[in-house]
Amino acid sequence: MSEEAQTILADFGEPYVSANLENGARVFRRCAACHTLEQGARHLVGPNLYGVFGREAGTAEGFRYSGAVENADFRWTPQRLDEWLANPREFLPGNRMAFPGLRDPQDRTDVIAHVAVETHAEPGPEAPEEPQ
């Protein structure tokens, strides 16, 4: 793991510090059909995820969200993203994400860590959060 990745994940704390980034990259391939990670990359079916951590839900510039996401009142943190990825339809009913979710908690941790490293994330004002 690169020094930059270690620094980013240290700010997020456990379980992300111990995440398997190779598995996260592998799992993210499912997400890449709809999401990009690079700064300035275009939106696909889903929004570009660069800058997602700490961002208010439903506010990525230039992406047209469902009313459910536009009206959601939270910021994206690792914990919120974990809850979303577990079951998007239950987490926020009425959203348009067709993906059924990632059932395996380790896959979710690994993909969140991968997204954090690839987007050079900072944890934001509400992160890190302890898993419940």
Could you describe the 3D structure shown?
This protein is an all-alpha fold. The chain has one domain: Cytochrome Bc1 Complex, Chain D, domain 2, CATH 1.10.760. 39% of the residues lie in helices and 0% in strands. It is built from six helices and no strands. The protein has helices spanning 3-12, 21-31, 67-70, 78-86, 88-91, 105-118. α2 crosses α6 and α4 (78-86) packs across α6. It is globular and about 40 Å long. Mean pLDDT is 92; it is low at 127-132.
Search tags:
Cytochrome c family protein; 132 residues; Cytochrome Bc1 Complex, Chain D, domain 2; 0% strand
Element layout with pairings:
Elements: H1 3-12, H2 21-31, H3 67-70, H4 78-86, H5 88-91, H6 105-118
Mean pLDDT: 92
Label the CATH architecture. Answer: Orthogonal Bundle
Number of helices: 6
User: Helical amount among residues, as a percent range?
Assistant: 25-40%
Beta-strand portion reads: under 5%
Count of β-strands: 0
- H-E string: HHHHHH
Condensed summary:
Residues 19-119 form the Cytochrome c domain. By secondary structure, this protein is mostly helical. Helix content is 39%, strand content 0%.
